[in-house]
Amino acid sequence: MNHNMHEQQPLRQTIYYGTFIHTPTPTTLSVLEKTSIGVSSTGTIIFIEPLSPTDAASKHSWSTYTTTRTPSSTSFFFPGLIDTHTHASQYPNVGLFGSSTLLSWLETYTFPLESSYTSLARARTVYRRVVARTLSHGTTCAAYYATIHVPSTNLLADICHSRGQRALIGRVCMDRMSPEHYRDESPATALQHTKDVTAHIRALDPEGALIRPIVTPRFAPSCTSACLSTLSSYAESEDLWTQTHISENSSEIELVRSLFPGSPNYAGVYDCFDLLTPKTILAHAVHLTPEEVRLIAARGSKVSHCPVSNSALTSGAAEVRTLLDAGIDVGLGTDMSGGYSASVLEVARQAMLVSRVVALRDGERGRDGEKAKLGVEEVLYLATKGGARCVGLEGVVGGFEVGMEWDAQLVSLEKVDAGSFVDGAESERFGDEQGGYDDDVLDQTAGPVDIFGWESWPDLVAKWLYGGDDRNVLKVWVRGRLVHVLGGGALRERVEND
Amino acid sequence: MNHNMHEQQPLRQTIYYGTFIHTPTPTTLSVLEKTSIGVSSTGTIIFIEPLSPTDAASKHSWSTYTTTRTPSSTSFFFPGLIDTHTHASQYPNVGLFGSSTLLSWLETYTFPLESSYTSLARARTVYRRVVARTLSHGTTCAAYYATIHVPSTNLLADICHSRGQRALIGRVCMDRMSPEHYRDESPATALQHTKDVTAHIRALDPEGALIRPIVTPRFAPSCTSACLSTLSSYAESEDLWTQTHISENSSEIELVRSLFPGSPNYAGVYDCFDLLTPKTILAHAVHLTPEEVRLIAARGSKVSHCPVSNSALTSGAAEVRTLLDAGIDVGLGTDMSGGYSASVLEVARQAMLVSRVVALRDGERGRDGEKAKLGVEEVLYLATKGGARCVGLEGVVGGFEVGMEWDAQLVSLEKVDAGSFVDGAESERFGDEQGGYDDDVLDQTAGPVDIFGWESWPDLVAKWLYGGDDRNVLKVWVRGRLVHVLGGGALRERVEND
Q1: CATH code reported for the domain at A81-390
Q2: Of A219, A319, A381, B350, which has fewest CB within 10 angstroms of its CB?
Q3: Which of B99, B375, B470 sits opposite A375 (nearest CB)?
């Protein structure tokens, strides 16, 4: 693939043809077969037609275009996934947390690593890897936390821009309760360094078409009232989005209560500083009280659900159904490295499981347990269109609709060779089986999901959700640009058409 | 790889050299570096020496031998994984269960599929795939449920034998509460067909060195008292192992209560028919009462913990710590297709998370939550040595000890290129970053785990546990025979030494 693809690859208008699957609503899995989607040279979806590329082009008077087709009967286009909460800087610690919980984990694992990003060399290696990995998992947009360091945070923005991944880039602000060498000297420092990163990103991407800055007070315990207040004013004056954490863990909630005795609860702390806005992403929201849920809903703030992290760090099981019923926009977050995976698909999978933990708990408490369970369509909605609403890209990405931008992935699942897999065809003598097995029965480059041929499209999607990995992502596009091809040399050979 | 490897590959004595990691006890991760393990031509570990292959061979007067070395500083030998509970026949349904729970899932998804194994062609395709997949995930031994059909169950045994995977093969017995066309006509039928499979397996593998039959009453609701009694007598008279399910789901427990009103509880039903023995594997054990835990411990029966399935089917969270504290042997089971993955590593990962769900629940109930959490070493012990105790292979497999057989895998993790990853070496001008990214930064054939170079061996193991997949399994051996090489053509090129 070309270097610096975002700059160098000229776009041509393209017709994508085959099967398209997306979730226009939380409870709808829409499957469009034998469909052509026309994407303009600026990456916008111009038409969606149940026609062949030729007929669709003719209807829309397109004379020149490139065609990209699904390569098999078990492949489909799906919207790119949106990671609404993750810490790029913590990536090297993925999988490392022992039996710690939030506050001890921050001290033991997180602050020592984050504070090392004074090294640009370290930042470069890690951030390149994070962006490459998340793209390979089909993540077309991520809301990143970096560290307090301006140069390496700017570098993360550069890397996302260069690789063509949509991103919100957060320079972490924190002026207390972290090691002295890894802390903002004052609210003024937090503000100035946030401004520095904002300026860098605005120079890089003046329209914020791909990369946007996001104001990032780490969480209430890390920020003095003056810091929260300063950052809130700045975000409002510059019309910027804000991200922070809320109600992840019981001890953290106790800590917030002791630090802000005047506030009725955790959400109230942020609200007191006007940090609960329709442009605020709140990560976790595991232990919210009904009052807090109502407050967040009233303010229109968004929640990033991080089930992998919440399970791994023994934080708890967030009640997503309650949040959705209250009208709160919810997206999914990998929350690396509280979460152990860079894959939003893994997060969606764990969101299913965690919703079942909540269902069991509700049942034990005499409530209707069934209600809490999330369906395949729902978690995929959260991973795409729901996520888009959380990062300010509603109507722009997350689905296949005319006027949206082409942030998408080509998913392919492996079909088991069914040569002998026909009922009534078992004419081979029994006993022939004792010889003749070879390990070529598996193509491990194609990922671990096996399709036997009788599955419906919803079955295929469920199998992908529960078993899929980066090997099932053949290609990824952002704003119409090809930003990832299933890689590693030989694997690329599988991707035949383009 | 050769066809029919189990028959055709002559074994030579081999010295494995490099780093060996295993769990001699549930709380010990033992790391042996620069070590030679000598394996005889019959697959038995003869010596373990902290010496080079040459020196070790000299010390033990070995003149001819093959040497297999770990290929890098981030690879190690690990015992093969043991799947103590899985349904080979349900494999095509992996990932498909909607929001059903146990009893509705059986009716909607499971019985229709299982009943189709009258087709040997279907059985052949599916069973070949199951064995290939599980081997690719490092599973060297599995306790399988097949279906009620004798020919296809025999075929599963043949395939395991041919591919060289250790297996316990269970012909499923059930004489009530399933569709009429998928049910044993009588206890006598259940017995006769079990005998038929036993005879086939004994002809195939007279010493049971690799393949053993296991008596398999599906679960109490599926078996009349006469059926349970008949099978129990048969297992005892033939000195066979038995496997069944217990206490998976609340509705199932209610059903058992209504079907066996004379028994004090679910475990009591099996005990009444002398089915709780030291050679019994009980899958699930999610909702056991303290009395049942004591009974199972007293009888010496084993428990297969299936957290993936238990979470997916909303069955509940088994209290593994309670079982272990009672002295019960516990192993891990994928329980496909209640479970959505063929990987025991995935099960170990979910065992960590489910233990955290239990920890939170215990905390809410005023107990010491920390106690319930399982550690990395513990779940890997359950996946290896613990599993071996559950399937009657204690002292035979599950670890690296002189006298044990060589059931092992070569695990390899990808090291991130640290060329520019040295503190103080960030001499590159900032801004160079805007060009020059290419997607070759990722080798997707090497799996999703990234090692940065500063990690300890326990860190590497934790990263593998949380993020590893079949791409990290370069080779798998059973009884000294090579039974899997990371496959799919090109991927195999990565495996250089042998």
Answers
A1: 3.20.20.140
A2: A319
A3: B99
Instruction: Measure CB to CB from residue A436 to each of B3, B443, B452 and give the nearest one.
Output: B3
Query: What is the least distance, in Å, from the CA of A454 to any CA of chain B?
Result: 10
Q: Concatenate the DSSP letters of all residues of A301-325 into one string.
A: -EEEE-HHHHHHTT-----HHHHHH
- Residue A438 banded pLDDT, cuts 50, 70, 90: very low
Write down the mean pLDDT value for chain B: 91
Q: Which of B340, B420, B446 sits opposite A124 (nearest CB)?
A: B420
A43-52, A331-340, B412-421, B467-476: least confident range? B412-421
Does the pLDDT of residue A193 top 50, yes or no? yes
Instruction: Say whether B96 and A463 touch across the interface (CB within 8 A).
Output: yes
Chain B residue numbers with beta carbons less than 8 Å from the beta carbon of A1 are 438-440
Fold of B1-79+400-418+438-498: Urease, subunit C; domain 1 (2.30.40)
pLDDT in tens, A316-368: 999 999 999 999 999 999 999 999 999 999 999 999 999 999 999 999 999 99
Query: What contacts B150, CB < 8 A, 6 or more positions away?
Result: B171, B193, B196, B197, B200
Structure-model confidence comparison of residues B116 and A494, the more confident one: B116
Q: Give residue A443's pLDDT.
A: 83
Helices (H) and strands (E) in chain A, counts: 17, 19
| Residue B435 predicted with pLDDT over 60 | no
Cβ contacts (< 8 Å) between B2 and chain A: which residues? 438
Question: Is B262 exposed, middle or buried (CB count within 10 Å of its CB: 0-12, 13-18, 19+)?
Answer: exposed
The pLDDT score that the predictor gives to residue B100 is 87
How many beta-carbon pairs under 8 angstroms link A with B? 297
Lowest-pLDDT choice from A407-411, B10-14, B121-125, B335-339: B10-14
> DSSP for B276-321?
-STTEEEEE--S--HHHHHHHHHHT-EEEE-HHHHHHTT-----HH
B119 touches chain A (CB under 8 A): yes
Query: Which of B7, B355, B437 to probe the A interface (max A CBs under 10 A)?
Result: B437
For chain A positions 322-351, those within 8 Å of chain B (CB to CB) are 340-343, 349-350
pTM over 0.90: yes
Share of chain B above pLDDT 90, in %: 87
Tell me how crowded residue A4 is: count the other CB atoms within 10 A of its CB: 16
Measured CA to CA, the distance from residue B479 to residue B456 in angstroms comes to 30
Q: Taking all residues of chain A, what is their mean pLDDT, rounded to a whole number?
A: 91
* The token pair that represents B266 in the structure block: 């679910």
* Residues 195 through 254 of chain B touching chain A, CB cutoff 8 Å: none
Domain A1-78+402-498 has CATH 2.30.40.10: yes
Q: Which residue in B20, B19, B21, B27 sits closest to B381, CA to CA?
A: B27
Chain B 412-471, CB below 8 Å of chain A: which residues? 416-418, 420-426, 428, 430, 433-446, 448-450, 452, 455, 459, 462-467, 469-471
For residues B56 and B53, give the distance between their C-alpha atoms in angstroms, rounded to a whole number. 5
Quick check: B91 contacting A, CB < 8 Å? yes
CB contact under 8 A, A445 and B340: no
One-letter amino acid identity for B308?
A: V
Is the pLDDT assigned to residue A287 strictly greater than 60? yes
| Token pair of A169 as six digits | 């880039």
ipTM value, please give it: 0.94
pLDDT band of residue A89 (cuts 50, 70, 90) is very high
Q: What is chain B's alpha carbon radius of gyration, rounded to the nearest angstrom?
A: 23
Using CB atoms, which residue from A125, A350, A359 is nearest to B420?
A: A125
Cβ of A449 and B95 within 8 Å? yes
Contact B424 A119 (CB under 8 A): yes
The whole-angstrom distance between B224's CA and the closest CA on chain A is 30
